[in-house]
Every structure is written in structure tokens, then in C-alpha cells.
Amino acid sequence: MSQTVADLRVERKPKLSETVVAAIRKQLLAGEVPPGQKLPTEGQLTETFGVSRTVIREALAKLAADGLVEARQGAGVFVSEHISTTFGVLAADMGAKDSVALNVLEVRLAIEIESAGLAAIRRNAAQEAAIQEAFFEFERLLLASQPTGPADLAFHRAIASATNNPFYVEMLDVLGRRAIPCDVTSPWSTELVQSDEYQRGLQREHLVILNAISAGDAEAAREAMRTHLTRSQQRYRERLQARQAYYANSLKAASTE
Q1: pLDDT at residue 198 is higher than 60
Q2: Average pLDDT for residues 217-239, to the nearest whole number?
Q3: The pTM is what?
């Protein structure tokens, strides 16, 4: 029997951790817990929300990934001071949808093309070394078949830092792990983006950016970053189209059974 998309849509109840995240995020937006202030302990949050410690830990991890809070070893979890709470809430509200990756890449195009050009002009020796170290860390992780997302983000963040304008870094910190969809821990991670071929392509593009910055060629750095992010957009459009085609074929097959 044929089924429509509406027939197959299932209402999903929010996870307990999502409810906790929403409640804490609302408090942060309202300024009830100011930047730099420590959050209640896991035990206190467990009692407040009536959930398990596992749920609380999952919620705190999500808030940390969104850049809203940060864990300090031995001290607890604190509201982030280094980013705007408003920006952080905006990033958190974007959700974990495939189409969001394209929106994030569009924002990154607006930010990172110029940051690459400025890094080529303004970087000092230590900042250039940091960019190189992130590049080679990506390579090490790739060879070890480990998630490259942290090194990928570190590469782009090091470039932003080399502009010597802290707002470029702040914007990447707001996007957090959403900025790097190739990481296996990303909401948008798939077999495609985890493949060696896919990540090798990223690394080749990174090398062009690195070489342009090292050469002090601002225009070449801008163009290399534009090419890298534009290709990333195209890769994601192709991925969405492939998923749509697969879904359509699945519906067609089901209707003939």
C-alpha cells in the first residue's frame, strides 16, 4: 500500500536531556545565571529536574558543545564568559538538522574568507606555527583513523586567531562543533564525511590555505578559503540530494510491495 511522507511522519517526544537543555538555556537567556557563574552541581540538578545523572551529563555536554557553558576540572561547570550568551542561544536554537550545515557554512563564508586574508598579513611566527600544528594534527588523526573534527576546528580557529581580531575567534566559538560537520561526533556526520577520501579532500584544501598564509599572500588565502568552503557547501548539497533520492526510492519500493 502506498504511503505519503505525511503518513510516515512520526511525532517524536523530546528526550529528557533536551528538556533540561531547554530549561537551562532559557535561564541563561533571561540572565538568571550570569556569565562566569557556576551552575548547580550534578546532584542538585538531578533533584531539580527529577532525572538521572546520566541525563544531566548529556544535557551539560550539549550546552558545552553549543558554547554556553564550560567545564573546569575540579571546579564544576560555569556559564561561558568568552562569548555572547545571545549568540550562544542563537547557535543552540539552530537544531541538529542537515540543512543547518549549509546555513553554518554560509555564515563561515562571510567570516572566514576575510579572516584568511588578514591572517596572511597579520600573523606572527607563533600564530603561523599554531596553524601548521593544527594542520599536521589533522593529518595524524586521519592516519590513525580517529575523528579529525577537533583538529579541523583548531586549524580554522588558529587562522581566526592570527587575524589578531578577537571577534573572528568569538564567532567560531559560537558555532562550536557545528562548524565542522566532518567530525564523527557531529550531528551531521555520515559514512560519507567520515571516509578517508572525503577527509583527504579537506586536507588538500587546507594545504592550499596554509601555503597561501605562509607566503603572506592575502588574496590567494582568501581565494583558497572561498574555494574550501564553497566546495563544502556543494558536498553537502549533493549529500542532501542523495538522501532525498534514496528516500524517494524507498517509498516507491514500499508502494509496490
Answers
A1: yes
A2: 90
A3: 0.58
Fold of 96-253: Four Helix Bundle (Hemerythrin (Met), subunit A) (1.20.120)
Which of 181, 179, 194, 228 has its CA nearest to residue 208? 228
Please tell me the distance from the alpha carbon of residue 90 to that of residue 85, in angstroms, as a whole number: 9
> Could you tell me if residue 7 is left (phi over 0), alpha (psi between -120 and 50 degrees) or otherwise beta?
alpha
Reported as a single tens digit per residue, the pLDDT across 21-41 is: 888 887 876 667 888 889 999
Measured in degrees and rounded to the nearest 5, phi and psi for residue 69 equal -135, 165
Helices (H), ranges, 80-148: 85-93, 98-122, 125-143
For the chain, the structural domain boundaries read 8-86, 96-253
Q: What are the residues facing 71 on neighbouring strands?
A: 77
Residue 184 grid coordinates: 564523527
Q: Which of 61, 75, 52 has its CA nearest to residue 24? A: 61
214 by DSSP, 3-state: which? helix
- What gap in Å lies between CA 225 and CA 191, rounded to an integer? 25
> Same fold for the domain at 8-86 and the one at 96-253?
no
